[in-house]
Design brief:
five-stranded antiparallel β-sheet; 28% helix; alpha+beta; 254 residues
Length: 254
């Protein structure tokens, strides 16, 4: 199996193309989250709601698009307690080969708190989701360079992506209202970060899993190819069985 990140033109840390103009993702040495970067992210669509639950009213948990042979996150209908046990088992490795992992938080946090939660672990994607009671809302995965400023700016980048989608695509009234609320709250710095995709050695991942505020860390095999695995986030509000969020509540004002 190829080494993670071995694809030509892909950065081994993020799993994304290092060509910012071609892929819409900043290289590791770029200045994070300036307006040009955010516009490039939107145009490139690499971070464009890569989890398939973006469409409001989706009936299955969100997943990444594309051909995948590996996946990370809970299965549809899986008990949360079973998933937490399964995730812990993936960290029982004796080797030190870095691997991709899904990090789930105990509660939603503002993006500004993510660098402290992640400590020294390399963050590759930040998962943004605006929680609304009994209302399905988009999940946006933001690829980030190795920069605390880029990580803390993920919420603003997610807001730009949702705003662009709202401006470009016809949405029904409810979906449009949900997007408006999500954009407003993300731009206001809401506690809307649900988790991360990271890359680290098993020992680092075990240390991360033991930190306060971390609900679960699930590691993929070391030979998982970068950007070729599906992601199903475990949202902080999921407590029993994993399934589609209810969507029968009123959309709140901004």
């Amino acid at each position: 199996m190829p080494e993670p990140g071995a694809d030509a033109g892909r950065d081994p840390d993020t799993g994304f193309s290092a060509d910012a103009e071609e892929a819409g993702v900043p290289p590791l040495d770029s200045e994070p989250l300036d307006p040009r970067w955010r516009r490039g992210l939107i145009a490139g669509a690499i971070g464009l709601l890569v989890l398939a639950g973006i469409g409001i009213g989706a009936q299955t948990p969100p997943r990444s698009t594309g051909i995948s042979t590996d996946r990370v996150g809970p299965e549809q209908g899986e008990a949360v307690s079973d998933y937490l046990t399964r995730a812990r088992v993936t960290l029982d490795r004796t080797d030190d080969a870095p691997r991709w992992a899904l990090v789930s938080f105990t509660e939603y946090v503002p993006a500004e708190r993510v660098p402290a939660l992640a400590a020294e672990v390399r963050v590759a994607r930040v998962l943004e989701h605006v929680p609304l009671e009994r209302v399905q809302t988009p999940i946006v995965a933001i690829p980030v360079p190795d920069s605390a400023a880029a990580i803390t700016g993920a919420a603003a980048a997610a807001a730009d992506i949702l705003r662009d989608r709202l401006d470009r695509q016809p949405l029904d009234q409810r979906a449009a209202q949900v997007h408006e609320v999500a954009v407003a709250r993300l731009r206001a710095g809401c506690a809307c970060t649900a988790g991360l995709v990271v890359r680290a050695a098993p020992a680092q991942l075990r240390e991360l899993a033991a930190r306060s505020g971390i609900r679960a860390v699930e590691a993929l095999p070391a030979d998982t190819v970068a950007d070729r695995f599906a992601v199903t986030p475990l949202l902080p509000g999921s407590t029993r069985a994993v399934g589609p969020e209810p969507d029968d509540g009123p959309v709140p004002p901004r």
